Amino acid sequence: MSSNPKIVVFKLREVVYTLLLLFLAALLILCLVLMFSGKSEEQENTVQTESAQTQETDTAQSTSETVSYTPGVYTTPVTLGDSTVDIEVTVDKNHINDIRMVNLSEATAAAYPLVRPSLEHITSQILAEQNLDHITCPQENRYTSQLLLSAVSEALRRAQEP
Question: Cα(65)–Cα(133) distance, rounded to whole angstroms?
Answer without folding.
Answer: 12
